[in-house]
Amino acid sequence: MAKKRPTKASQRNPTAARPGPSQPGCAAAPQKTRWFWTAVRVTALIAAAATAYIARDTPRALGLGPQPQQTKQPSPNVGFMAHVLQKSKGQNICKPEGYVMDTYSDFDGIEALNHKVAGPLKKLIRTKFFRTLRVELYKPCQFWTSEGSCFQRDCIVQPLDEQKVPMEWQAQTIDHTSFGPFAGSFPRQRQEYTEKDFAIVNDETYGEGVWLDLVDNPERFTGYAGAGANAIWMSIYQHNCFGVPPYLQDTAGGWGSQLVNVDGKSMPFVQPPRKRRELTPFLQNLAEEERGVTLPADVPYEYRIFYRMVSGLHASISAHICADYFNATSNRWEPNLSCFISRIGAFPDRLQNIYFNFVLLTSAIQKMQPFLEAYDYSTGSKKDDMQVKKLMPKILSSVKNAGLLFDDSELFHGPAGQELKTEFKQNFRNISRIMDCTGCEKCRLWGKTQTLGIGTAMKALFSYPDRAFRGSFTTLDFKRNEIVALITTYFQFSCSLEGIELFRSMYQDFVTDWQASNSGSSQQQLPAKS
Q1: DSSP string for 61-125
Q2: What angle do CA 28, 33, 34 make, to 5 degrees?
Q3: pLDDT of residue 235
Q4: Which pLDDT tens digit goes with each residue over 165-221?
Q5: Which helix (H) or strand (E) holds 334?
Q6: Which of 485, 465, 483, 484 is nearest to 475 (CA)?
Q7: Which is more confident, 229 or 118?
Q8: Which parts of 287-381 fold into alpha helices (H)?
Q9: How far apart are CA 333 and CA 204, in angstroms?
């Protein structure tokens, strides 16, 4: 504000004495003296105030102490997770963090699609065709000496009575060749995969294997933990992700409890913050990104897609464990929010990769739609067969109407495209084999089933042109267990998305309950009015 011009003495005090005729200018000198001392007093007051302020906050004012930290912007992955957890019902997330990288959708759109397919999928996977699968559970580990098996009750699978399996599915358990004088003497050498396969297929019709009911052996917390559990994911990330492995905490690997680390020390889950404004900084601090340990931004597109598939599978398994976690205190199976925050929050890119894998599987099913519609799902059970005929078209219709979510034509171009695709297949087949090293039977079952499911999706997207899925399908080679694994894996990721919504609701209730209780306690502490 501009300073006011000094007013005349007469204006300030009308009764002030005026110089008489015999004393021209006699008041000028005293007037100047008064103004001088007034200025000195004002200057002294300003100096005193400044001295007091500096004395109050000398280190910060002089730059000698810790300065206020600037607010740090969260990374896109952390921002994405914070938005997912904090989204309110009916809220439209229109922020960049809401979009799933390498897709044409945001997590809102993906969740909306899942709401349409989740119900029919839950019923479909309970039908005889989709709940019955033959898996080679006891193949030896090719990469290291296994530490042994987990014999806890929840690690062990329950085999299916083979009398309940249709005969046409279990024909040719051992297929013998027929040539020369040694006809029938030698079992035919079965190929583990064909040139078009991205995973080890293990055809059900011959070879060793165990018939299992997937519904009776659900993916959930088993207690399998320790060095063996962590070695699985460490080996996958370090040796099969094209040299772009993330930092992998011991407490985030494997299928087991995070409450015990590989060295036997207690590793309790972290607790999420109770204030909404603290969630993003909390996730930023929990994340491992600042160590330069997540996927670099400049890796080839194909490498990034490969890593995202593996990371998404890992995250989905973790989400299932946390959603169906055994609480030893209450002796109940229940969702564990702290487990979810710990397993996913430290690696927020994994959350986005769950959505990415759901998109990838959706795109494969979109491409395979005519083939899947015409497929023979007969089991001999009229009730189950009618259910499949009713449910499969609903799922395929919802998937078709979702539109373009992922463009598979953008991969494997250029002179090195085919060579890169071959390497892509080899590495993913290796991951299929690494699952044989899992010491927990149930974990091995779901690891092998879901790698086959994702491998089947990649086979459909990258081994066949669109025209192969139209007409007579004569060029297609998909085994029954590939179809089962594809739909089952789609269902598993659908459940993971439902789990994310459940944990979102739990977190919001967690914050709301704390705010209510904190508000109540504050009111109780207010002094009574006199």
Answers
A1: HTT-SPPPPPPPPPPHHHHHHHHHHHPPTT----SGGGBPTTSS-BHHHHHHHHHHHHHHHHHHT
A2: 100
A3: 79
A4: 988 887 554 444 433 444 444 445 567 889 999 999 988 877 778 999 999 999 887
A5: strand 332-334
A6: 465
A7: 118
A8: 301-323, 337-345, 348-374
A9: 33
Q: Are 125 and 495 in contact (CB under 8 A)?
A: no
This prediction has a pTM of: 0.73
- β-pair partners for 266: 260
Predicted confidence at residue 440, as pLDDT, reads: 87
Residues sharing a CB contact under 8 Å with residue 194, sequence separation 6 or more, in sequence order = 201, 477
8 A C-beta contact, residue 503 and residue 322: yes
Closest to 103 measured CA to CA, from 349, 307, 407: 407
CA distance 192 to 196: 12
Helical segments of 375-479, H only:
382-401, 417-434, 441-462
CB 485, CB 456: distance < 8 Å: yes
The mean pLDDT value for 48-64 works out to 50
Distances (CA, A) of 311 to 254, 304, 351, 451: 13, 10, 9, 12
Residue 41: count of CB within 10 angstroms of its CB: 9
C-beta separation of 481 from 201 below 8 A = yes
More confident residue, 174 or 114: 114
Averaged pLDDT for residues 300-325: 88
Cross-strand bridge partners of residue 187: 176
Backbone angle region of 34, left / alpha / beta, with phi > 0 → left and psi within -120 to 50 → alpha: alpha
Chain segment 257-276, per-residue pLDDT in tens = 444 333 444 445 555 555 65
Three-class secondary structure of residue 394 per DSSP = helix
Of 28-32, 156-160, 390-394, give the lowest mean pLDDT range: 28-32
The pLDDT of residue 77 is above 80: no
**Whether pLDDT at 337 is above 50:** yes
CA nearest 458: which of 279, 269, 336, 305? 305
Backbone angles phi, psi at 305, to 5 degrees: -65, -40
Element (H, E) at 129: helix 128-131
Name the helix (H) or strand (E) containing 505. helix 480-525
